[in-house]
Amino acid sequence: MKRFLLLLTVxxxxxxxxxxxxxxxxxxxxxxxxxxxxxNYISGAEDEFSGINIFGSTAISxxxxxxxxxxxxxxxxxxxxxxxxxxxxxxxxKNLSRRGFKIYxxxxxxxxTIEIENLIETDxxxxxxxxxxxxxxxxxxxxxxGNGRNPDSYxxxxxxxxxxxxxISASIRF
Length: 174
Known about the structure:
Elements: H1 2-18, E1 28-41, E2 46-61, E3 64-75, E4 81-94, E5 100-116, E6 120-136, E7 140-149, E8 160-173
Antiparallel strand pairs: 1-2, 1-8, 2-3, 3-4, 4-5, 5-6, 6-7, 7-8
């Protein structure tokens, strides 16, 4: 019986090596995107930041993905104000690791620093909800995602009404 199990294990391992990588689902990706973030205040004023987002993701299953990234952005009106941070996301959806259309929702945790010209630096962190959609090609993926953040996470900004962030991205799948 032990010999049979050993031979079966060796046969399975050989089959796994022989099957071309293209036939297996591509579960991971590395990408870059255009990052946009908007703070809306009760008075109607808003602050807008735009920049870059670099991220990586891995599929835990066909319908569950973990994605993490870093972003850096400047205020669109005052370049002396910057926003940089880390975003960790747990996404649930349809067709996240296979070719074709995908749609997802999930939770994200963010930790960021808003800095005014090396004079004032304030750290914020919190959670938010995320929605996204995209398309997985054979070797690349395109996505759009947006998230809403809890304004209470920004305790130094008491007149803050809503906070949202979004990204349009392209990634290489492997």
